[in-house]
Each structure stands twice: as structure tokens, then as C-alpha cells.
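Appendix B, Record 12. Input sequence as logged:
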Amino acid sequence: MKHYILVLLAMSCVNLFSQDVFRYHKSSIYSIMLKHENQEYCDELVSCFNKIPIPEKFNNHNLPIRVFKAGILEESDTTNSANQKAHVDALLKKNAIGRRLVAKWFNFSKAGTFNPQMILERGYYNVSAEDVAMLMRSYKTQDGILYDAGEELIGHTYVLVNDIRYGDKRSAKEKRMSVAIGIGTALSVIPFVGQGIMAGAGILTNDYSGFNVTVTSYLYRLKWDKEVENGFYQLYYTATPNAEKKQAFAKDKELFSLEYIGDYTVHSSNSNFKGINGREEQIRKVCTRAIDKAIAQLQKKHPQFRVRTPLLTVSPITAQIGLREDVDMNSKYEVLEVGESEDGRTTYKRVAVIKPKKGAIWDNRYLAEFEEDYNASIKATEFELVSGSIPHEGVLIREID
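Logged structural output:
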């Protein structure tokens, strides 16, 4: 069965050196929310979280259920009341999240069969008949292809568990005004985006700065090494229905595990709500920006979580990352040339180092177009060369310390 997958992968591989094909492997992410049912705005936070898109730098590996109950907080214990890690560890294991992520990678069916279609789609795309014919005559080995797919794709699957807690930091005056027009006591008074709004409420909504959240994001990585890979193929993988293997796979809660990477807490700052006429959009803006901030900081703290981004242009040097990814004047990026080793594994060779150009950082934060200092003319961040040279189009950049 393993040979069958190798053949499919070989037939679907891309010529990395083709001028018309650009390929790079994205990490995959499953984003979860912990909800606090006894806290104000719980339902609104859940609704908004489910509408927050996965950042485009990642492949969407979400499972059907994305919202789970938070652990019970001991409010009197100020040192541990916000720490949900033990609860998250238990939650991920109890729900066999590691196994479910693998099942999604291999399109596990109700009949108990698997196939590598998702690996092909995410790892090798823009395939032409000429590419396939060329590759079948090339030196690229089947073992290299499988190693590439496993290490570069499955082994870079992450779970981000977001503990989102509402914190009302409005002044006493703001709270009294909210009650007066029904914001604080009746959400239905403030319509969602796309509906009309009464004049008095609209003025307060535009200037409203009291909705704050604290988001602690716990990051995990799917463990996928040779032991796990071999166990999966030997014990469970089948392209034809097999009731015994199906049942055994469905009960396995040990082979597929998640490794804890780290966590980061963001306290949202007062947001500018100008141009936003609905509470739902307000909440979504605050939560989206807080989660984006957590992801950016987790990438800074944990190099294995850092993403590679293609350069948009070489002259000038531009890339579509910006304030959403916490790019600032102190950021530095290595420029990576994509290649392959003799056995067919993807390689990344540093050829240059770049840094953002002053006054040219793109504001790509959620709803940034309503910010007072938003510069609509900047569509990507422009960089300047620190060292090395950029040989051609189709290179990647990755943040470095």
C-alpha cells in the first residue's frame, strides 16, 4: 500500500525548476476556541470566531468541531485562574485530535479507506503532462518524494487553541451611556453589519472603545516521525474497505499525538471602530487582531512555526506580509532559494538577508482600511537588501532573529 502512494506522488510531482511553476509547502493549521459559557458575550464571541478565516499563509486543516468548553476557572486564584493548558492537554487527547488530523490528511472515508489526494493537492500542484513525463525520467526517487510529503506537509500540522475571554474595560461613563441606549443590556438594539442603525447608537458605536478580550493561544504540533508513519501504514492504511482496520483506527488514541510548542497571551488594545456599524463586526475585529497577534508572536518565539512567504517582486523587493504579521523596522528575513537534493527532497538555501524599508510597511490588519493613518497606496511591504543577492523570481522569505 505504501508503494501505491509513492507511485501516485511520483506521478503528481512538479518540476521545481520550471519557469511556469512555483511551489512551496505551507504549514497546516486547525484553529480551536475555548468558550466560557458563564461569561458575557459568549454566544457572540463563538459566532464571530467561526467566521474568522484561517490566515492565508497556512493551509486550512480545520475539523468540523472548532469550539469546546473551557476548563473551570478558580477566580479567587489569581496565579492560575487563566491557565488552561492542563485542560487543553486533556481535551486534545480525549477527542483524539491527533488521529483526526491524520484522518483528514488521508481522506479517511466512512468505508474505512484512505487515499493521498490531499497530500497531492497541497504538496504538488500546477501539474502538467510534460512535468509528469519529465519527472518519470528524472533522478527524483520515490523515497525522497514520500519523505518530502511527510516531513514538509504532515509533520507541519499545527493546532492553535484560543482561550478567548471578554474583558469590559469601558469607563463608568461609557457603561452608563451603553445602558441608556441598550448596548450593554440588549444586543438586539445594535443591528449587525448591513442593517440600518439609529443615529444616537451609531455615534456611540463609532467612538466605542470598551470591548476588549484577552486571548491566550496554545500551540501544538502533530507528531509525525518514522515510527508513527510506519505504524500508520502497517496497522491502518488501506485503499479498499477493511472493517477490522477501520475499527482499529477509530479506537486508536495513542499512536497519533500532539506535541506542545508554547503559548502566548494578547490583551487587546482599544480598537478604532470607525466605519463599523454593528457589534458583530466590532467583536470580530477585536478577536481577529488578537489571534493574529498571538500567531505572529508564537512565530517569533518558535522558529519551527515560522512560515515561508514568496516574494511578490524582486525589483523592488516586495512581499505580501505586513503589520498583521508584526513586521516592523527591527524585522529581518532570510531569502531562500528552493531546490532539491539528489534523492528528491526539497531544500531551502539562504541567498540573502533583507529588512523592511522605512515608511513602506503594509498595513494588512483586519479592517485596516478604516484606520485614520491607513495608506491605501501600499499594497505590499517593500524591503531593502542587507546582504547577499536575489538570483531570480520564485524565492521565499522567512523571518530570522
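Residues 176 and 184 are 9 Å apart (CA to CA).
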